[in-house]
Backbone:
């Protein structure tokens, strides 16, 4: 399905199909989730889907004076670079054989950014109902090693820590979206990143050496990290 501006159903179906198509196409190409308009009422859903796609991000605003610059600032650096994931996001294992459009489950797509994972979570249910679900590290579409993780929601600001086997519970209203950064706790420290962006870990380089953690930011912003059980910003 193509991107159709201002259509609520398209925001759901376009996102759903794009995520599942990545199961095949990510082995061949960088998936292209298509253009979108920043002043579309569902632009945030489209933008989040694009930045976790691993593919190109481009807009088709017909009226430049309407462009939502504040929205774009959450994915752009001052030098014009676009924050991105390391590889195309894939659906989490718990929804491989579920239908987020027709069932009360959230659409979840996960990728990596440095040592952290990012999970985009969407409520694309056709009946416009509130949906509650859980994100677990065991369901990520790749192997993870740590026993403890710190998490942060870029859009709601939720944060906390979980251990392997535990999950982050989310309750999203119709077409609400969240991006969780899930960072491994290593030597007591987990680095979330710069919170002004939708992909906080994309704006930092994390260097681990001899029990120490060195963080090199790529831009000016608010650094959030977790150390010995406490979040520090």
Residues:
């Amino acid at each position: 399905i193509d991107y159709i501006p201002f259509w609520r159903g398209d925001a759901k179906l376009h996102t759903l199909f794009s995520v599942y198509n990545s199961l095949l196409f990510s082995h061949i190409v960088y998936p292209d989730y298509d253009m979108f308009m920043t002043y579309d009422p569902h632009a945030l859903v489209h933008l989040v889907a694009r930045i976790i796609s691993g593919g190109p991000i481009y807009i088709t605003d017909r009226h430049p004076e309407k462009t939502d610059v504040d929205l774009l600032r959450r994915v752009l650096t001052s030098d014009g670079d676009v924050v991105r994931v390391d590889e195309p996001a894939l659906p989490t294992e718990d929804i491989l054989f579920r239908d987020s459009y027709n069932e009360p489950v959230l659409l979840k797509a996960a990728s990596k950014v440095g040592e952290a994972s990012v999970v985009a979570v969407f409520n694309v249910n056709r009946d416009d109902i509130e949906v509650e679900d859980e994100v677990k590290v065991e369901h990520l579409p790749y192997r993870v090693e740590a026993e403890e993780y710190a998490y942060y929601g870029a859009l709601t600001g939720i944060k906390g820590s979980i251990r392997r086997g535990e999950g982050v519970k989310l309750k999203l209203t119709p077409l609400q979206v969240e991006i969780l950064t899930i960072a491994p706790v290593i030597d007591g420290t987990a680095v979330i990143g710069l919170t002004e962006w939708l992909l906080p870990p994309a704006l930092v380089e994390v260097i681990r050496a001899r029990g120490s953690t060195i963080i090199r930011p790529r831009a000016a912003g608010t650094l959030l990290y977790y150390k010995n059980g406490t979040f520090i910003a």
The CA atoms of residues 148 and 163 lie 4 Å apart. The radius of gyration is 17 Å. The mean pLDDT is 95.
